[in-house]
Amino acid sequence: MIEIRGLTCGYGEKTVLHDVDLSVGKGEFFGIIGPNGSGKTTMLRAMTRLIRPAKGAVLLSGVDMKDLHIAHVARKVAVVSQSMPLIEMTVREFVLLGRIPYYRKLQFFEKGEDTAVAERVMEMTGILHLAEALMSEMSAGEVQLAFIARGLAQQPEVLLLDEPTSHLDITHQAAILDLVKRLNRQEGLTVVIILHDLNLASEYCDRLVLMDRGRIRKAGTPAEVLDYETIEEVYGTVVIVRENPLSRKPFVMIVSEEVKEKCTGRS
């Protein structure tokens, strides 16, 4: 679905990604992890043409994205950003923004089909009862669901999410990721998601790529990527990795400085 070939890009004269090769298959739930500043968000922006490659290419279904019309890309790829500004519009109005890529020339208002799609995705995300509520008056979890609904209103084949669970409690984190997982499995939606929480990434993603200073350090299944040696080297933090007894996925535990001192006899 998405293929990155020899991608080098950044901002102005600052290069962030260096010669990155990556492929995401149709229907995958694919996670991007790595420390702050490792290039995760830059990679996601390159997948949406917000950043142009200095070298290399990003392909969507085998076609270089630079050769695709922006409206075509918007119908294929939806983005859910981590930024959630207060917006003085209703949830329904906000979700309907996702239908803009389908507007015809000189069309200024939604049609019946657009309204039907918006209703369906609000129901899918569990926010139909909030359709007339103001975005600025909703909780962080509800706002994030509205952002996902707006993305789904584009009827995309690929959903890109940039840290959708940041600032949410564990209840809302699980609700958001369970929803995205259901969409992935039931609707065949290809998901590419940036996550800071290694345990959430391990639990929900089919495959992971670990970024380190603008390069891919490791890629594969959670079990292949999340070993303690690699995590300690990339993050500079002592950890213990064990297997979740139910999912059989890796579970990462941080070792505090106090515990390290006790274990080394320096307390």
Description:
Helix 4 (about 110-125) packs across helix 5. The protein has about 270 residues and is of the alpha/beta class. The chain is about 35% helix and about 25% strand. The strands form 3 sheets. It has a 6-stranded mixed sheet, sandwiched between helices. Strands 2-1-4-5 form a 4-stranded antiparallel sheet, covered by helices on one side. The protein has helices at about 40-45, 70-75, 90-95, 110-125, 140-155, 170-185, 200-205, 220-225, 230-235, 255-265; strands at about 1-10, 15-25, 30-35, 55-60, 65, 75-80, 160, 190-195, 205-210, 215-220, 240-245, 250-255. It has a single domain, classed as P-loop containing nucleotide triphosphate hydrolases (Rossmann fold).
Query: What proportion of the residues is helical, as a percent range?
Result: 25-40%
Radius of gyration: 20 Å
How would you spell out the order of helices and strands? EEEHEEHEHHHEHEHEEHHEEH
- Number of distinct helices: 10
Number of strands: 12
Label the structural class. alpha/beta
CATH fold descriptor: Rossmann fold
Distance between the termini: 53 Å
- Contiguous runs where pLDDT drops below 50 for at least 5 residues: none
Please summarize the sheet with the most strands. 6 strands, mixed
Q: Oligomeric status of the shown chains?
A: single chain
Anisotropy-based shape = globular
CATH class: Alpha Beta
Number of domains: 1
Bin the strand percentage.
25-35%
* CATH homology superfamily: P-loop containing nucleotide triphosphate hydrolases
CATH architecture: 3-Layer(aba) Sandwich
Mean pLDDT: 90
